[in-house]
Specification:
Keywords: Signal. By secondary structure, the protein is of the alpha+beta class. The chain has 4 helices and 7 strands. It has one domain. A 4-stranded antiparallel sheet has the order 2-1-3-4. The chain has a 3-stranded antiparallel sheet with strand order 6-5-7.
Length: about 150
C-alpha cells in the first residue's frame, strides 16, 4: 500500500511539471502583457518557460515586448506565434517569417503578422506590401527604448 501511495505522489508531481504549450481559450483568456481578451486567432502568441508556465498574448508584439522586458532573463522552452494562413495554429516563433504591413492590422496596431515559411511571407508581401523580418530582426524592429 505504501508503494502505491508513493507511486501516486510521484506520478502526480511529474504530471504537474508538464512543459508544453497550453490551449488558448479565445474570447476568455486575457493577454499577459496588455490584459486585453484574446480573440484574434491570426495574431495570438504564447511563451512557455522551461518550468512549464505558459503566458498567452493577444498579439505577437505583446509577446515580443514581454520577452524584451519582463522575461529578458527567463529561459523559455517555447516561443509560439499564430500562423496568419492557419488561424489558431501556433508555430515556432524563432523560425517564423514576419510581415509588417499597414494592410494587415494586428490587435495592438503594429501591423505584425507571422508565417510558417519565408515563402508564405513573401507571397503575403506581394499581396499586402510591407517589410519582412526574421525572429531576431522583428525583436530589433520592436525594441523597447528605456
Amino acid at each position: 500500500m505504501k508503494q502505491f501511495f508513493f507511486l501516486s505522489i510521484i506520478s502526480l508531481l511529474l504530471a504537474s511539471c508538464n512543459v508544453s504549450p497550453q490551449p488558448i481559450n479565445y474570447g476568455s483568456d486575457a493577454c499577459h502583457f496588455c490584459d486585453m481578451t484574446i480573440v484574434d486567432k491570426q495574431h495570438a502568441s504564447q511563451l512557455v518557460t522551461t518550468k512549464g508556465k505558459a503566458y498567452k498574448y493577444d498579439a505577437i508584439e505583446c509577446m515580443v515586448h514581454s520577452v524584451q522586458d519582463e522575461f529578458k532573463d527567463t529561459e523559455m522552452a517555447y516561443y509560439l506565434v499564430a500562423d496568419l494562413n492557419a488561424p489558431g495554429e501556433l508555430i515556432d516563433a524563432t523560425k517564423a517569417t514576419y510581415l509588417v504591413s499597414e494592410r494587415l492590422q494586428s490587435p495592438m496596431g503594429e501591423n505584425l503578422s507571422a508565417f510558417s515559411t519565408e515563402e508564405s511571407g513573401k507571397k503575403a508581401r506581394e499581396k499586402f506590401t510591407g517589410d519582412l523580418y526574421s525572429w531576431k530582426e522583428i525583436q530589433d524592429h520592436l525594441k523597447i527604448i528605456k
